[in-house]
Amino acid sequence: MKNLNYILFVIVFVRLAVVPIHADTASDRDFTARIVAIFGDCQKVKPGMTRAELYKLSLFDEDSGPLSDPNDKSFKQHAKFEYKACSLIKIDIDFRRSDLKEALPTDSIAKVSMPFIDARPRR
Fold first, then answer.
1. Lowest CB count within 10 Å: 3, 12, 107, 116, which one?
2. Is pLDDT at 70 greater than 80 in this prediction?
3. CA 119 to chain centre
4. Distances (CA, A) of 63 to 11, 23, 68, 89
5. Where along the chain do its domains lie?
């Protein structure tokens, strides 16, 4: 969480200090504002939340890969989620261990990664 706050601080600092010097166009300001908003959305996912609360945010979809079965509801302790507004932005989420074989809405989030760009080819 500290790292995410640090990155957000750096982005805001860059926005205030560097961006106006190098490129002070409306599209640059809009782009920077959008990145800050995306990082803010990513910070809404916190350890202790349930899977149901994560889905209720309506910000992320589970990224199970192109070859996975869409009907697979098995429990996975580690899962990758993609930001709905831009599928290249991802976060990794670790759920607390469960003895059950099925993913449940009550599964609790143990750890959330910092957002990252995943631009690997999907085919």
1. 3
2. no
3. 14
4. 26, 35, 9, 11
5. 1-43, 47-123
Q: At 54, which amino acid appears?
A: L
From first CA to last CA, the distance across the chain in angstroms is 33
Mean pLDDT, range 78-93, rounded to an integer: 93
The amino acid sitting at 100 is L
**Token output for 6:** 């640090």
Q: Which of 85, 26, 75 is nearest to 51 (CA)?
A: 75
Tell how far CA 28 is from the center of its chain: 23
Joined tokens for residue 59: 């910000």
- CA-CA distances (angstroms) from residue 70 to 61, 74, 75? 12, 11, 14
**What does the angle CA 77 – CA 81 – CA 82 come to, to the nearest 5 degrees?**
170
Express as a percent the part of the chain with pLDDT over 70: 77
